[in-house]
Amino acid sequence: MFSPLSSGPDDVRLVGGSGRCAGTLEMLHGGEWRGVTADRWSLKEAAVVCRQLGCGSAVKSPMSVSGGDETEWGFHIACKGSESAVKECTMLYSSKIRYPVGVVCSDSVKLADGAVGLSCSEPDEMRLVEGNSRCAGRVEMFYNGQWRKVGADVWNIDKAAMVCRQLDCGSALAATKIKSDGDVPEVGVLISCSDRKMKKCRPMRIRRIEYLAGLICSEFLLQPNISVSTPIRESRSLQGPEVFNGHSFTITCSTQPQYPGGSFHLTLPRTGRSDSQEAVSHSASFLFPTAADSHQGNYSCVYENQVSFQTDAFQDVDQMYSNSWSPGPFIYNFSSESKPLSLIVTDLDGAAAV
């Protein structure tokens, strides 16, 4: 059930905030103040509210979460953003609402004593949790002052790719979804990542979600470390680690604990070949009994591990255009390479190898 509305000059206000220029939005109709729903809410509508109240520009358009039943009557509005007052917006009707909206205007940062405060726009920050890596796990967005779970209603590998880029985690290997715990769906946020010109995903609306969004990015494994040790403690080189002709040295590959197992591959200089060892306690040591001129050059460690992710369903890059999902788990062979180690071989009398 909807009813048309007519607006007067004092028909909007912001309540419950830090002042008259920030808070939950209410509109006056029929002598009663009522909330506004989040279904069609954006900074365009918020800009009109700030303009009408003489509060500067819109900084935020947060959605609050009541989690209650749709028993309160409130308003839906949609504006172009250029209107001088809410009454000029093209859509205006009332219905039952669950999620009221808020507005933060730029003038809300002005303090009573004349000092100037600072109010930053919503960061829309993303993070991944419960995945043993900052580049894999369940997706959360920081919105309206708290971290919220992201719903999988409109989730896919294309959106996962944008989140991976936003987090500087490489490319997306899979989008995942898992059923929310409990009999009652959780309250979370739906996000939009559909516009390829967007630099990051944006919140769409707050709602109850049955399935939670997750993802796995290509930069899942931490970068391994590489180091060299020698029984001779003397070192005179300023150009890098130094070992000595005719004496032993050991190159160690290691990584931070994420998953057990895996293997290390030590890439050797000049030849391009590599030696391999299974990881023991997240490391492997490669012994060279006698250093020679041929050992001088750049070394690197490559760590490989197969990881299985428990999830109800996943969508990988091969399913990007089919809109199909596969049952979990998602299994992938990961690899990560260390920074290069430049090793110098010298004689004990100080002459370096060439």
Q: What layout of secondary structure does this protein have?
A:
Layout: E1 12-19, E2 22-29, E3 32-35, H1 43-53, E4 58-60, E5 72-78, E6 91-97, E7 102-105, E8 126-133, E9 136-143, E10 146-149, H2 157-166, E11 172-179, E12 186-192, E13 202-209, E14 211-217, E15 225-229, E16 242-244, E17 249-254, E18 263-267, E19 274-278, E20 283-288, E21 297-309, E22 313-316, E23 326-327, E24 330-337, E25 341-346
Percent of residues in beta strands: 35-45%
Pattern of helices and strands: EEEHEEEEEEEHEEEEEEEEEEEEEEE
Q: Which overall shape is indicated by the principal axes computed on the Cα atoms?
A: elongated
**CATH top level label of the largest domain:** Mainly Beta
- What number of structural domains do the residues give? 3
Strand count = 25
Compute the CA-based radius of gyration: 29 Å
Mean pLDDT: 80
According to CATH, what is the topology of the largest domain? Immunoglobulin-like
Q: Roughly what percent helix?
A: under 10%
Annotated CATH architecture of the largest domain: Sandwich
